[in-house]
């Protein structure tokens, strides 16, 4: 019931916006006028798409991963704008690109969830950028979003840590609340950037151990680091 109400409220909001504003849009990055997209043609050309599907494997677990782009150029700017400038227009464009990837790869989705933020990051930023992306995707492809992954302990910031340290830092730091929401379902796990894959892996492992049928990891960007 709650999911249908949210969809209806968003529909009304979109209808009102279409009345108030004309058809001109501004590019999320350079702010030039663009008629049919949140990115102008020049900024679109600066997206470095990541076409290969890859896997994260450890402890006899194996998860399929897809990323829309590499963490560079326009995608890097979009993510930084969403993450540190509260630019939700940039976030909507990222979500739109992630939906294209879901359709291209024909990813079966029953429910969507996302990588949780630490309490420190959530308090500082006021929102979880991965949750924002997941909610946008869920609204547009008509799939429920489950806020079931939680952090069970504080961890160091992953930025600046070596690959091995990232894995040790994040190990056993997640738990699941609301097992019935994902049990025997295909779960799409959403995050903004994947680097070593440690965070995504342990989130996916938690979902798998709790009875999810299959987990598909989708990120906006993939770091070369």
Beta content comes to 15-25%
Mean pLDDT: 87
Helix/strand-derived category reads alpha/beta
Rg estimate, integer Å: 17 Å
Q: Strands across the major sheet, in which order?
A: 3-4-9-8-5
Account of the 3D structure:
By secondary structure, the chain is an alpha/beta fold. It is 42% helix and 21% strand. It has helices spanning 2-20, 41-45, 73-85, 88-105, 119-125, 129-141, 163-170, 198-209, and strands spanning 25-26, 33-34, 54-58, 61-70, 111-114, 149-151, 174-176, 186-194, 214-222. It has a 5-stranded mixed β-sheet. A two-stranded antiparallel ribbon has the order 1-2. Helix 3 (73-85) crosses helix 4 and helix 4 crosses helix 6. Residues 17-22 have low confidence and may be disordered.
Topology:
Layout: H1 2-20, E1 25-26, E2 33-34, H2 41-45, E3 54-58, E4 61-70, H3 73-85, H4 88-105, E5 111-114, H5 119-125, H6 129-141, E6 149-151, H7 163-170, E7 174-176, E8 186-194, H8 198-209, E9 214-222
Which descriptors apply to this entry?
five-stranded mixed β-sheet, alpha/beta, 225 residues, single chain
């Amino acid at each position: 019931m709650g999911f249908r109400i949210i969809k209806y409220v968003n529909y009304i909001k979109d209808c009102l916006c279409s009345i108030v504003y004309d058809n001109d849009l501004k590019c999320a990055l350079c702010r030039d006028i663009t008629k049919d997209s949140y990115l102008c043609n020049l900024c679109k050309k600066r997206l470095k798409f990541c076409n290969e599907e890859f896997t994260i494997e450890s402890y006899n677990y194996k998860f399929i991963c897809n990323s829309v782009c590499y963490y560079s150029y326009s995608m890097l700017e979009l993510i930084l704008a969403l993450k540190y400038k509260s630019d939700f227009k940039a976030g909507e464009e990222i979500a739109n690109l992630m939906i294209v990837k879901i359709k291209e790869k024909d990813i079966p989705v029953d429910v969507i969830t996302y990588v949780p933020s630490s309490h420190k990051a959530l308090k500082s930023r006021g929102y979880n950028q991965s949750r924002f992306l997941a909610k946008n995707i869920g609204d547009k492809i008509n799939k429920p979003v489950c806020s079931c992954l939680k952090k069970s302990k504080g961890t160091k910031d992953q930025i600046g840590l070596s690959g091995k340290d990232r894995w040790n830092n994040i190990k056993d730091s997640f738990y699941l609340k609301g097992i019935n929401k994902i049990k025997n379902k295909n779960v799409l796990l959403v995050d903004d950037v994947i680097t070593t894959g440690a965070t995504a892996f342990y989130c996916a492992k938690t979902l798998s151990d709790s009875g999810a049928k299959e987990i598909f990891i989708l990120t906006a960007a993939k770091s070369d680091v």
